[in-house]
Specification:
2 helices, 58 residues, elongated
Length: 58
Amino acid sequence: MVQIVNLRTARKQRDRDTKRAAGDVSAAKHGEAKPLRDQRKAQAEQDARKLDGHRKDD
């Protein structure tokens, strides 16, 4: 037997899932503790300096 689907409910559920996924991305981006963010930023700066130091100028 075929299940009857309410299109309005299906659309709302799809929208909820989309917003939840966007929220998860935002939480991952902004949800870390300040010391961890600072550590990641310092590591990125150190990596950039190290890479620039090994750059060969022509």
